[in-house]
Amino acid sequence: MKKLLLSVIALSSLTSAMAQCSDIFISEYDEGTYNNKALELYNPTNHAIAFNNNYRMVRYNNGTSAAAGEANPQAMISLGTHVMQPYSTWVIVIDRRDTTITSGTDVVVFAGLRALADTFLCTNYNISYTMNFNGNDAISVQKTTDGGTTWNYVDIFGMMGDAAMVTSASWSDQPPYDGSVGAWWTLNHTLIRKPTVTGGVTTNPSPEFNVTVEYDSLPVNDWSNLHIHSCVCNTGINELTGNVSLNVYPNPSNLGYSIIAAGEPIELVDVYNIFGQKVLSTQGNRANKMKVETSSLTKGVYIVKAQFPQHKTSTVKLTIQ
After folding, report:
1. Which residues are CB-contacts of 86 (< 8 A; sequence separation ≥ 6)?
2. What single-letter DSSP state applies at residue 98?
3. HSE-up (13 A, CA, CB side) for residue 267
4. pLDDT tens digits for 126-172?
5. What CATH number is given for 236-320 in this structure?
6. What is the pTM of this model?
7. Nearest-CA neighbor of 57 among 130, 165, 162?
């Protein structure tokens, strides 16, 4: 069995050990209906990161210990040779693309999620079942710098080594966070890493995993934030501490325009589609309210990002009908 070396960093009173804007981490976790499962990775650095088969993902089924999970070849898979550009995302989707399968465990991933994938990871159980995760499985992203002899944790989602930690199908949002009380978060939900998180969790979160500390929750099968991640590593702390109020109306809209209202003068409004592509850009009028023409947009969900003085920004969803 290959040796695993834990990168030990001092713990704070609020969060697990984290690197500061120095390596990739999980920025979005999608545990949807059927086979709609995805992970988004984020590069928080100012330089490109080449995977070069030096990164891998490991699944710990139902609280499997690290020793057991990392000794099982089917529980892990290489992340390939992709190159992540600075402050960019990379979306991994389970490889269920056969549209002829309409029922059973191999049912196809929904078209909307398939379209957002940067890569599809193998789901053949004889090779790897890493992407077949459920709400009570832990996941780690690991890195090697010596050709695979030693692996370091760069991020951990969930908790390894204590099957009793999750008493049901999901971690929850109330103590003891094991799913026995409170709302389930890691099953049938989309989870977005908070913008203040600057690196991955590199030590097993014992004695409990409180998902609400570092993640915000969205409804099941909501992929509107894939390929869009806000992080202080890129935007600067002013963007977050400003927290400028932002509203768009009517919303949903079918009028061909939307009114943007904010708590500070608007300098610029950008609109992004669900693929993270900028589809509109309108110069602000430095007033707290402005009109944006949306007649060129097709039906769907968009992200409106407004920029304010001192580099502050806020985002809000817009639905075009």
Report:
1. 43, 45, 46, 47, 48
2. -
3. 9
4. 889 999 999 999 999 999 999 999 999 999 999 998 666 788 899 99
5. 2.60.40.1220
6. 0.71
7. 130
